[in-house]
Amino acid sequence: MGKDMSSFWVQYKDKNEIEARDELILHYAHIVKYVANRLAINLSSLVEIDELVSYGIEGLMDAIEKYDHKRNIKFETYAITRIRGSMIDGLRAMDWVPVSLRQKGKELEKTYAILEARLERAGTDHEVAMELGLSIDELAILVKELAATAIISLDDFISGDDVNDKKKRIIDLLEDDNANDAVELVELEEVKNLLAKSIARLPDKEKTVVYLYYYEGLTLKEIGSVLGLSESRISQLHTKAILRLRGSLSKKKHLLV
User: Fold this and answer.
1) From 29's CA, which of 87, 117, 122, 220 has a CA 20 to 30 Å away?
2) What is d(CA 113, CA 125) in angstroms, rounded to the nearest whole number?
3) Residue 105 Cα to chain centre, angstroms
4) What tens digit of pLDDT does each residue of 30-44 get?
């Protein structure tokens, strides 16, 4: 049985007792390490896990600040999204992905989207390689290189090229089922439907990886055990799935901004 934290939530939220907030941070700090370890699987060695933890603590504090303890939502579920988003913001600020690799990723995303529109289904590895003028082995190497960039995944900003464009994260929209504004509700439903349709078009194995990773919370290693595949193979499937989704969603970004 975990420690009952309800009294600390009351003390902090209703009475603004800082000691109670500190107790909450200490109690839930393990979530930060959990999220950092999950993100670190695909990250390059240039990013230290301690850096992720540092960004994650900021996300945990933000989650504690914004969490409504009176609503029937488990804090851990709410916090994971905020912590992960904070870590990704930190990585963005570091700008640790080389420009050349980012350009390759954009080209591959675009290729996936073009083939999907042309074929009305997801392109196979052979078709993608042909479109890019690469061999199957060269495509596999490219996907492996891009694995680290795929951690942005479903949390990526969908926005125009103008820096002044309003930016929204898909995950932020998906997590808020309590929007009161009628327009927001319609927009939210459009985004959910768009994302669901994009996921549904993924090849079966990629679809399964996305479901197990994002909805069941399994690590890539755990997914490999479930599917009987190596962790590196699962990483490859995850990367391709995310690049397909970003390519598909980028063609419809006007619905998301």
Assistant:
1) 220
2) 13
3) 16
4) 999 988 887 776 665
